[in-house]
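User: I'm putting together notes for a lab meeting next week and I want to include a structural view of one of the chains we've been expressing. I don't have a solved structure, so I'd like a prediction I can at least talk through. The sequence is below, exactly as it appears in our construct file.
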Amino acid sequence: MKEIWLCVKEIWLCVKEISLIENPIWLVVKEPMFSMDERSLIENPIWLVVKEPMFSMDERSLIDNPIWLVMKEPMFSMDERSQAM
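Assistant: Thanks for the context. Below is the predicted structure for the 85-residue chain, given as structure tokens.
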């Protein structure tokens, strides 16, 4: 499985050659790799495991495989999204 790195900036994602700036993208985030608090969200980048993306970036594999991303600016409430799963 090839890992794909995504950098979350504001509400937009840039995936290597693919430009998604024109389309807002929301991810379903499951099981954060470590506990988080509001302070760490603001001060430090946070690594999350993203599963079941709500969109198709790469038809070949991204839909069925976990995607790694670095979240530098939270774009939704982790509590609401996480507990909803």
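A couple of points you could mention at the meeting. Strands lie at 5-9, 12-15, 18-19, 46-50, 67-71. Residues 5-34+52-84 form one domain.

User: Perfect, that's what I needed.
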